[in-house]
Backbone:
């Protein structure tokens, strides 16, 4: 098996205009990298993908249908993007010999655990979004298992695009108090940290496999929001705890999205830094208006 460090690195980032894709393009600024997004590539179209992948040695799929609630009524569309798309990319990479990195999600699990999910835990999604992402993982493993990384992430935020942190920063200015659920546990993860880890895994020659690319530690949306308010210089007591059942959504939210990181250690890498340190590092970019 050829490790990615042995690949002459001409990179293709699919979905480069999204939050993660934008950060990845910045991390790769001194490398030979090209970004593609709609309408220049349609990952649901095998011919479009075949044409795009030609000539690249490393292909990163940041494209996804991530509207969790909308997927409940549009599972066929989500499946096309989250399952058929990755399969098309994997087949194209298998044909050319390119390395592939695919981004997945904590939603492939059922969210009922009480200890961190290991990388080899059985997938048991209970949402349309989770089912389509699990199908995408299976496709990549089936088609291109010996030259691919699958990186599961969760609670992703960053400077480029809408996300929870930017929403809370805006709401602090708009409301006297704010109710936030305190019974969902997870790992807020900065998209720049994910982009950096993705790149490190490739240049270090980490073998093919599935890895959990989330921040270390764990928190709740309520505690996370209190931390955001504190960093804004606002009174964190304005954030009030509530429960998930007070905010019914079309897609059920996992109560527990904490992912284990043992696979990194097996290949000589420490887990990503803790979520609080990451938020502090990300803060200047989050409090600056998007350009």
Residues:
């Amino acid at each position: 098996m050829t490790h990615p460090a042995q690949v002459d690195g001409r990179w293709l980032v699919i979905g480069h205009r999204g939050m993660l894709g934008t950060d990845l393009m910045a991390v790769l600024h001194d490398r030979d990298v090209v970004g593609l997004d709609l309408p220049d590539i349609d990952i649901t179209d095998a011919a479009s993908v075949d044409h795009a992948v030609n000539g690249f040695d490393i292909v990163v799929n940041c494209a996804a249908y991530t509207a969790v609630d909308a997927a409940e009524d549009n599972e066929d569309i989500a499946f096309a993007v989250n399952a058929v798309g990755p399969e098309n990319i994997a087949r194209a990479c298998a044909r050319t010999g390119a390395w592939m990195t695919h981004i997945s999600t904590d939603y492939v699990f059922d969210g009922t655990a009480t200890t961190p999910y290991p990388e080899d835990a059985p997938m048991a999604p209970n949402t349309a979004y989770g089912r389509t992402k699990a199908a995408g993982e299976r496709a990549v493993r089936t088609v291109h298992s010996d030259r691919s990384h699958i990186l599961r992430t969760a609670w992703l935020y960053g400077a480029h695009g809408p996300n929870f942190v930017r929403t809370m920063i805006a709401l602090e200015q708009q409301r006297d108090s704010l109710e936030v659920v305190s019974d969902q546990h997870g790992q807020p993860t900065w998209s720049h940290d994910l982009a950096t880890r993705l790149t490190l895994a490739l240049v270090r020659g980490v073998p093919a496999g599935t890895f959990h690319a989330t921040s270390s530690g764990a928190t709740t949306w309520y505690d996370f929001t209190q931390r955001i308010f504190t960093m804004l210089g606002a009174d964190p007591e304005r954030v009030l705890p509530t429960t998930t059942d007070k905010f019914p959504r079309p897609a059920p939210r996992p109560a527990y999205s904490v992912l284990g990181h043992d696979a990194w250690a097996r290949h000589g890498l420490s887990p990503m830094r803790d979520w609080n340190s990451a938020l502090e590092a990300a803060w200047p970019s989050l409090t600056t208006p998007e350009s």
Q: What stands out?
A: The chain has one domain: 4-161+187-217+257-273.
